[in-house]
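FAQ: What does the model actually see?

It sees only this:
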Amino acid sequence: MQTQAQVTINLDKTLKEKVQKKARKKGITISSLTNSFFKDFVENEQTLVDRLEERMFDSVLQSTKVKKELSNLGKLL
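And it is asked to produce this:
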């Protein structure tokens, strides 16, 4: 018999609605999706961490401040 634990997370409301809509179209629940992500993290931690770091890095590069600094650096070179 499997035991289950309840996990509460804070999630942007708009993102939650988008995830829920997409999951419904595929016939799965958010719980199933979350369990799948957690299992993937346990089994393939480096892969998931790499993807998260890449997304964070991409977000930073898209910020106005960083774009301006990179532009200024390019002018100096």
